[in-house]
Amino acid sequence: MHTERAVATPWGPTKKYVQDLSARKNEPGWMTDIRLLALGHFQTLAMPTWGPDLSKLAVQDISYYTAAPVSHVRSWYDIPTNIKNTFDYLGLLQAEKNFLAGLGVQYESEMLYKSLREEWAACGVIFVDTDTALREYPDLVKQYFATFVPAHDNIFAALNTALWSGGSFVYVPVGVALDKPLQAYFRIEAEHMGQFERTLIIVEDGATLHYVEGCSAPIYRTQSLHCGVVELVAKRNARVRYTTIQNWSTNVYNLVTKRACAYENAVVEWIDGNIGSAVTMKYPSVILQERGARATLLSLSFAGAGQQQDTGGAMIHRAADTHSFMLSKAISKQGGVSTFRGKISVEQGATAVTARSQCDALLLDERSSAAAYPDIRGAHQQCLVGHEGSVSALDSEQLVYLLSRGFTRQRAYSLMVNGFVHACISQIPAEYAVELNMLLEREMAECP
Q1: Cα–Cα distance between 244 and 214 in angstroms, integer?
Q2: CB atoms closer than 10 angstroms to residue 74
Q3: Where are the domains of the chain?
Q4: What is the pLDDT of residues 26-55, one digit of tens each?
Q5: What are 269's strand-pairing partners?
Q6: What is the dihedral of CA 91, 97, 99, 105, to 10 degrees?
Q7: Residue 402 CA neighbour count, 13 Å, CB half
Q8: Cβ count within 10 A of residue 423
Q9: CA distance 210 to 269
Q10: Among 90, 106, 383, 409, which is most buried by a count of CB atoms within 10 Å?
Q11: Burial degree of 430 (CB within 10 A; 0-12, 13-18, 19+)
Q12: Mean pLDDT of all residues in the chain?
């Protein structure tokens, strides 16, 4: 589907740097070997040429590792005041008290804080940072690490595998159904920062999990890089929802790889909210490995001036009677560029498959643009596979009507945009839907 530039990567970490990083973390030899193998892939893989222009990313100036100002703490009161004030402003402390089963916060390259309610720890739920998991649960990490996102998958997956630090490790035992979400929050504070968290989620037979990821960074004149990898395993009859509320500043390049594997009758749901960043390239995917597996992707993106939101997903049907649906809602203003890339693959022997993708784009002015690149492979007569898309501008008659009823222009724009994205936001818990609506309101403040 894509072409690559066949040249070696002219930047990146050295072998000695990767070895020193692994030694500093006191990792087992097999993890050091994985990192070095990934470094080899990174040095030979090509930069993508089929998506947004990445030439302005000053990768040679990126810091690959920046330690948090304090080591892992167990209480908010042990966090330095300036950092705690930021997290209080973001509402994390209140969220932990009111509606979370657990909370983790990553600051720069390290997890700063992690908590899990005692009732779930007593049920065998594990919620720690991935570095801790490697020390305390090495067999589980070794079994699943880099299995669904191998280092050779793409250049940024290779870079993450070589340099990963922090991220979340979640394990939900058989039959355990968490009634509240786990949340991880990732914050980039330093300039020229590269954040390479690695998240691994394992949900056993019949278990249920909702994991929420939040992201933010202050605005600088220099670029930062967020290069995360997520691997998610949903065993037989498991149900997993992964919600992302991304609000990166416009100096961040957000280049991530997220992939799940769904076994017999498992359900995987990606809900992806992308606001901010200079460039986002993110395509959450699901491998529907066994009969009866189901997957959905609801993607919301907002591209403003100078921003490129290149999003979408992939559904890989490997078994019969599997079902998937992708819905993308993209908004562009002030010359922003929104792109949807949706892949549906039906492999040999996967019969009675239903799979559909839909992308809808809303342009708020004549300078903005949107594009869609659906890719359907392997479908045959015993499968129902399709794609549909639309591009529209704000309805001028609706705008006039709202203005005539006393709404300000900004409020009228907001109401119309909220109606456009309702199908996505309605699937998000109320606490996070409010946050996402507030972010959209802020974006609407700059509309003409």
Answers
A1: 6
A2: 9
A3: 15-282, 395-448
A4: 999 999 999 999 999 999 998 898 899 888
A5: 241, 296
A6: 60
A7: 17
A8: 14
A9: 9
A10: 106
A11: exposed
A12: 85
DSSP bridge pairs for 212: 183, 243
- pLDDT (tens digit per residue) in 202-225: 999 999 999 998 876 665 556 889
| Of 399 and 356, more confident | 356
Task: Look at residues 228, 142, 231 and name the one whose alpha carbon lies nearest to residue 187.
Answer: 228
Average pLDDT estimate for 123-143: 96
Residue in 272, 393, 384 with CA at minimum distance from that of residue 326:
272
- How many C-beta atoms surround the C-beta of residue 371 within 10 A? 15
> Is the distance from CB of 305 to CB of 332 less than 8 angstroms?
no
Report the half-sphere exposure of 225 (CA within 13 A, side-chain side). Answer: 23
* Cα gap 388→408, rounded to integer Å: 34
pLDDT, greater one: 389 or 80: 389
Query: In residues, how long is the chain?
Result: 448
Q: Structure tokens of 143?
A: 């079994």
3-state DSSP percent of the chain in helix, strand and coil, to 5: 25, 35, 35
In tens, the pLDDT along 225-274 reads 999 999 999 999 999 999 988 888 888 899 999 999 999 999 999 999 88
